[in-house]
Write the structure tokens for this entry.
Amino acid sequence: MSGKKPPFPLLKDGKRHDGRGPMDLRPIQMKVGILHNADGSAWVKMGRTEVIAAAYGPREPPMKAMILPDRAVIRFRYHMAPFSTDERKSPAPSRREIELSKVIREALEATILTHLFPRTVIDVFAEVIQADGGTRTAAITAASLALADAGIPMKGLIAGVAVGKVEGQLVLDIDQVEDEYGEADMPVAAIVGLRKIVLLQLNGVLKPDEFLKALSMAWEGLKRIYELERSVLGSKYKGV
Ligand code: ADP
């Protein structure tokens, strides 16, 4: 949403700049159990956006002061690797990363059965390896898969996707160019099986009817991502 004119048309003959139709997701790949040294881990690639997530716990908190007597404490870190962006990003956490860490943590708290593990901590780290738009939604999908891979009980898997508006048209799963030159970016994450939205943000401008349409487009995308998550986790994790 730079307000600048795109260097090439974002929509031509109903197709987006990468050839997708408005309702097409980017090609998605997912894997779980990719890291030896984490209790659970996952890798999610949506187009060129690539995120890995690692989950640890439930384990004893490093500091007594963190302990909650009735539930587990959830900690989550969203971080972009310095090499993930076109220009090297400082490895120090930015305000954006700190805020995203907080809102994604709150989304994860909505699904993790924290009351089953009082006096413990569950840590989740999401590292953006390659950024091309939709990193927060890929991070939340990866985090949910890593938690499932760690065997941490959840109400259901979370999936995330962003809907955008480019040249007046709503489009699903926007990439960086569509985000940069588009008119709106609306990331949504949900516990799909329970029909519960746990994260919803909007940058840019949408009319109320466009907002409702964007939400139903996001929901279609989330259902597809959720089915993929379930098939990647396989029979071992049936029920999430
Ligand atoms: P999201 O990745 O969730 O869509 P934003 O809308 O904030 O988050 O960012 C859109 C895209 O802009 C990112 O995916 C990334 O490709 C790029 N971007 C974001 N922050 C930076 C940064 N600090 N340096 C370079 N590129 C960035």
The longest helix spans residues 208-233. The longest strand covers residues 49-59. Residues 133 and 175 are 4 Å apart (CA to CA). The mean pLDDT is 96.
